[in-house]
Write a structure and sequence with these properties.
Elements (H helix, E strand, L loop, with lengths): L13 E2 L3 H4 L5 E6 L3 E9 L2 E4 L18 E5 L8 E10 L11 H5 L3 E5 L12 E2 L8 E8 L2 E17 L2 E4 L11 E6 L2 E14 L2 E8 L2 H11 L4 E2 L25
Length: about 260
């Protein structure tokens, strides 16, 4: 499925604690989900955040979250964000089916768009462009939050595309609980462009890998759903409590490992 030794060339995770370190990554943020868990999201337009669909499901009931409080904390690090925005409505890919088992069917459509109540118009927070999915062997990177690094994002500037199959991108990128929805990117003319979002972590032939959906058609279909008005409005703002380090998600904001 992939070339051995690829992980040996991967960059180490670098915690983005300072403003200088985080520069150019302020559009990546933590998604706090009704005080029960968090995911990672990335701004792709002043009012649109891209993340994983399973973040928006209750893991106990398997039902989509249609009420409560979801907040996007752009550039969140060490107790402060560059911008705070509530989520007004959400749209999950129409072919996404939530279930616990990791499969190509689940991962390939594990994509959601969140529309913010107010746009983020801040010179330091530049929405990311998206790009076509990379080829096997290409270098990618990832910026994510995780359970053991929830207070600042971490950058892995270089990891590898190990395989592409059935609309799923398999990479060597280092992810963990809370990294769901994190942007996987390539550099084009010095700028990061999103090519996938993290859906799950898995193990293949003894190697830890991350699984992500290829964008392309699934993202175009999501945008069409939003334009057609088939998004879900959040019906309440319960659970204003911040997620504390070490807490586990009661929502789908988590990973499953086969």
């Amino acid at each position: 499925m992939f070339a051995s030794g690829a992980a040996a060339d991967d960059a180490r995770l670098k915690r983005l604690d300072s403003g200088d370190d985080a520069k150019a990554w302020e559009a990546v943020g933590r998604l706090d989900i009704d005080g029960k868990g968090f995911c990672t999201g990335a701004l792709i337009a002043p009012k649109l955040v891209l993340t994983a669909a399973h973040c928006l499901f209750d893991s106990d009931t398997g039902q989509p979250i249609d009420e409560g409080h979801i907040e996007f904390l752009a550039g969140w690090r060490n107790g402060r964000a560059d911008a705070y925005r509530d989520v007004a409505r959400v749209v999950v890919h129409p072919q996404y089916v939530y279930h616990e088992k990791v499969s190509s069917d689940r991962v390939r459509n594990d994509l959601a768009l969140l529309e913010l109540e107010q746009p983020i118009r801040n010179a330091s927070i530049k929405p990311f462009q998206t790009a076509a999915r990379p080829r096997t062997g290409d270098s990618v990177g990832v910026v994510s939050y995780a359970l053991d690094r929830s207070e600042a994002p971490s950058l892995q500037e270089v990891c590898a595309v190990l395989a592409r199959q059935d609309g799923v991108l398999i990479t060597s990128c280092s992810v963990d609980f809370g990294s769901s929805g994190a942007p996987i990117f390539v550099f084009h003319e010095g700028e990061a462009q999103i090519v996938s979002v993290v859906s799950a972590k898995a193990e293949v032939r003894g190697e830890q890998v991350s699984l992500g959906t290829a964008l392309g058609q699934p993202l175009a279909e999501l945008k069409a759903e939003l334009v057609a008005g088939r998004a879900t409005y959040l019906s309440g703002k319960q659970g204003e409590r911040r997620v504390r380090v070490g807490e586990r998600a009661g929502t789908g904001a988590k990973f499953v490992s086969p």
